[in-house]
Design goal:
The protein is mostly helical and 493 residues long. It is 79% helix and 0% strand. The longest helix is centred in the first third of the chain and has 36 residues. It is globular. InterPro entries: EmrB-like (IPR004638), MFS (IPR011701), MFS_dom (IPR020846), MFS_trans_sf (IPR036259).
Length: 493
């Protein structure tokens, strides 16, 4: 079985079904706010540039400041959840994120906006790092857990396309400031619901993992690594001296962290957690699939904008089928698939559908038709994501001890964030290079660059399929009979 009561059940049974599902909705609301913010900001970047006078290069810091803080702190935030209590870390993150959002909306200078975005990244890391660990403790029973993880996976993976639509509407109808101000009522309400519906957990205490040197090493390594990917590697190239120097420093910090964790009496990240082939494989799959999917959503948006001439609102509407299909599968059917076949087979099938969709995208031409060349791709991505991501989230937590749930949750988030940043940098660079060296007309050269990156993304996700098939052990079928399904969602509503 991919989850056991003995491994994951740390929430008292006294917490009723209704309150547990309301707690889940609260956690998903917090995650949705974090996920939406990423793509909402991307849509508003041109308006922000015009209003605050950013140059093309400095504008990247509106995104990079957030990514560096978010990606750098996820692992530490997950472990802090184990030590200080996950609800405490979750609510603290919501408060920080909400306050920083207001500061972003009030920003009248480039410096204030970039600093506020960094603080937003800190809040986002604290909030999102502990969510998966809280879900598996709230729902120790396999069927309920599969359903709950399906809802979380939908929010985490499909929320970005909703952000494209929301960003277009808010930016065009009001102003870019409101993409941040809208987080204030959502953040306040979610914080209040968290205090009311999420049961407070005590945590292990800082004495079980107060590893200051380890925290400094891993946070420094992750922040510097993300910075290296999104700045010098993306702008100067992967072989530029500055890129190689920062990459070497990043690797040295990681090596120092591993040595520290192997020798510390109370390590921040116990290395024993990586003995599980399932957990290690799940994190590798997460990194590779995030690399392919995130980069393609970015480049796919550029294809729609620069080649087909779509505006921000039209791009958001174009991606809605992905969200609808992914949501339907994640919430309604993923639990049934996982319970019937175990999580490994749905994971492989879902990833394979994503590979097919990405390969199909390489055939979208200049002047392509949305219904012929784009919609089938987005439908396959939604279908594959809706099948595989809930299974992947379940596998990532399946062999985790209760005291390590926050760490494992932060780890899978870290791998997804670093994978997304790395994939975006690689695919964008490859696309630009292919376009620059093409002898075709400008639009054909641009499309040729996108096609090349779509093919590379398909190969990256295909590598994730291979890891899922080879590294991860087959899991036993969790349920062999059709038990009556509890109407918990209806009850919670």
């Amino acid at each position: 079985m991919y989850a056991t009561t003995e491994t994951l059940a740390t929430t008292p049974a006294a917490q009723g079904s209704r309150s547990r599902w309301l707690a889940l909705y609260t956690l998903c609301a917090g995650m949705l706010m974090i996920v939406l913010d990423v793509t909402v900001v991307n849509v508003a970047l041109p308006a922000i540039q015009d209003d605050l006078g950013f140059t093309s290069s400095s504008l990247a810091w509106v995104v990079n400041a957030y990514l560096i803080a978010f990606g750098g702190l996820l692992l530490l935030a997950g472990r802090l959840g184990d030590l200080l209590g996950r609800r405490n870390v979750f609510t603290a993150g919501l408060v920080v994120f909400t306050i920083a959002s207001v500061l972003c909306g009030l920003a009248r200078s480039q410096e204030v906006l970039v600093i506020a975005r960094f603080i937003q990244g800190v809040g986002g890391a604290l909030t999102s790092a502990v969510i998966l660990g809280m879900i598996v403790t709230l729902f120790p029973e396999p069927r309920e857990q599969a359903k709950a993880i399906g809802m979380f996976a939908f929010v985490a993976s499909a929320g970005g396309s909703i952000g494209l639509l929301a960003g277009g509407v808010l930016t065009q109808a009001i102003s870019w400031h409101w993409i941040f101000f809208v987080n204030l009522p959502i953040g306040v309400l979610t914080t209040a619901l968290a205090v009311k519906f999420i049961e407070k957990d005590k945590g292990l205490g800082l004495g079980r993992g107060t590893d200051v040197p380890g925290a400094v090493l891993i946070t420094g390594a992750l922040m510097l690594g993300v910075f290296t990917i999104v700045k010098p590697a993306a702008e100067l190239g992967w072989t530029a001296p500055r890129t190689l120097l920062l990459a070497a420093i990043t690797l040295a910090l990681l090596a120092g962290f591993i040595v520290r964790e192997a020798t510390a009496a109370n390590p921040l990240v116990p290395l024993r957690i990586f003995r599980s082939r399932t957990l290690t494989g799940a994190n590798l799959v997460q990194a590779l699939s995030s690399s392919g999917m995130f980069g393609i959503f970015f480049l796919g948006s550029l294809y729609l904008q620069r080649v087909l001439g779509y505006d921000a609102l039209e791009i958001g509407l174009a991606f809605l089928p992905t969200t609808v299909v992914m949501g339907l599968l994640s919430v309604k059917y993923s639990e049934k698939l996982v319970m019937r076949f175990g999580p490994r087979r749905p994971l492989i099938v879902g990833l394979s559908l994503i590979v097919v969709g990405l390969a199909l995208f390489t055939q979208a031409p200049v002047g392509g038709n949305y219904f012929i060349h784009v919609l089938p791709v987005l439908a396959l991505l939604g279908l594959g994501g809706g099948i595989c991501f809930p299974a992947l989230m379940g596998l990532s937590m399946s062999d985790v001890k209760p005291e390590d749930a926050g760490l494992a949750s932060g780890l899978i988030g870290t791998m997804g964030e670093v994978g997304a940043a790395l994939g975006l940098a690689i695919l964008a660079t490859l696309s630009a290079t292919r376009t620059a060296t093409s002898t075709k007309s400008p639009l054909e050269a641009l499309t040729d660059g996108y096609h090349f990156s779509f093919g590379v993304a398909a190969a990256i996700v295909a590598a994730a399929v291979a890891i899922a098939a080879i590294v991860m052990r087959p899991t036993k079928q969790a349920v062999t009979t059709e038990d009556p399904e509890p109407e918990l969602l209806c009850e919670a509503a």
